[in-house]
Amino acid sequence: MTRPDTTDYLHLFLDDTPLLDVRAPVEFDKGSFPNALNAPLMNDEERHSVGICYKERGQQAAIELGHQLVRDDIKRERVENWVRFANRNPRGYLFCFRGGLRSQLTQRWMHEAGVDYPLVKGGYKALRRFLIDSQEALLKELPLFIISGRTGSGKTRLLLETPNPVDLEGMAHHRGSSFGRTLTPQPSQIDFENRIAVALLKARHTKAGPAFLEDESRLVGRCALPHNLRERMTEAPLLILENTLEERTDIIRQDYVTGMLDAFIARDGEEAGWINFRDYLLSALARIRKRLGGERYQTLRDSMVAALDEQQRSGNADGHADWIQVLLQDYYDPMYDYQLNQKAGRIVAQGDFAALREWAAEQSPACTIPKP
Does residue 222 share a domain with residue 79? Predict the structure, then answer.
């Protein structure tokens, strides 16, 4: 039975529906959607040539040029890619920019190959507009709580234990500080915005109770929070996660030292992994050199180099505690204390991990969190 084309944008996103994006790679790279795969009708050069032809000679001439550029083996290979996607994703849909000629041609060629596959009416433009409008509406009605706390307190770990988390750092592939880079490249700004909108839709439509987010600055790496979300976050109630300096030091060491070393070695191998890991830590420290001041920076760098040398020689990462604690106490904590003073009236709960985990569960009675 042939499935109809759709305008049910909401359930495309709520159901993580596989999407076949037949726009050119340059369009896809600028921004697309979660669960979208790029299998273009035309590559960037072909699209550019057709676009020039359209401006100079009109639509019919552009269509004829497109057929000349995408034919024979090129056409066969692209149709095979689409059919393969359809067979692997029988509940999916295809789209182009507006749901027009490119979608319809892709659909027709797939039909000629024996596969009927539905398209998204309105294409990328309609999907993007739906997400922008939905986010605007959701942020007026969806209750939000913001998890705050000193650097290294484990805010992300707590966030992921709440009933309804919206993980901004996870979507940005960045932990939000000078040391926050991960080995997964950050998404484009539009991709980031689309991921946030989809996450908020799911928080509203598939789970009960308020959404929880981690306290972030305007930028998460190079990804900027949407202005309307940032405004809501600066007004939302705060949960303050508290723990000891020793606990925070251990979390930093796990996340930014041992965890990152393992990731670099897994990606690059032992020798190159170590080289790239050292560069990652030293470069992250160098990025805040001006704010640290020359003397304090050099002291911290010497401590970091000594800890790296010992770790590489013996496998013991305990030496990193020295520079981590100094950086926390002398650099990050004063900034946090100043910022917290500006937010004191918004605090609704504070305590350790277990206490805030329980508090969050109580705000969402329909959602239960299993005890550890």
Answer: no
